[in-house]
UniProtKB/TrEMBL annotation:
Annotated InterPro entries: E2_Ub-conjug_enz, E2_Ub-conjug_enz_C
Residue ranges occupied by any Non-canonical E2 ubiquitin-conjugating enzyme C-terminal domain in the UniProt entry: 71-105
Superkingdom, taxonomy of origin: Eukaryota
Lineage: Eukaryota, Sar, Alveolata, Ciliophora, Intramacronucleata
Protein name: Non-canonical E2 ubiquitin-conjugating enzyme C-terminal domain-containing protein
Length: 121
């Protein structure tokens, strides 16, 4: 026999993947909220449209990079645990690199090595 949790998972999968079964259960059980759920066709179309690019007009070559950074602020992105770790590693590396560039450039290049080390500490 199957456990109750296994049966619930099986039923949920069947209802999720088979719109006809979902419609029949909703009708038989008088579940008005379930009847109001979008159809499978509408769901598929929404998934396809989700990543389509919206054309708004001619684009300058120079504004492509700026536009990319502006759009990136608003694009939702879900990262896995490993991807988040790598993102933090890259961000930290960039921060250290910026700090190193800052310390190596300017007056630090002409400064006494002992004074430079004291400032870095």
């Amino acid at each position: 026999g199957c456990s109750e949790a296994t049966l619930k998972r099986l039923l949920a999968n069947v209802l999720r993947k088979c719109p006809d079964a979902r419609q029949k259960v909703a009708t038989d059980q008088s579940l008005q909220a379930e009847l109001a759920i979008v159809t499978e066709e509408e769901r598929r179309k929404a998934e396809e449209d989700q990543y389509k690019e919206v054309k708004t007009g001619a684009v300058d070559e120079q504004t492509d990079e700026i536009d990319f950074y502006e759009r990136a602020k608003f694009v939702p992105m879900r990262l896995t645990y490993d991807e988040r770790k790598y993102l933090r590693l890259i961000d930290s590396t960039m921060h250290v690199s910026h700090y190193t560039d800052h310390m190596d450039a300017g007056p630090g290049a002409r400064m006494n090595p002992a004074r430079k080390m004291a400032l870095q500490m």
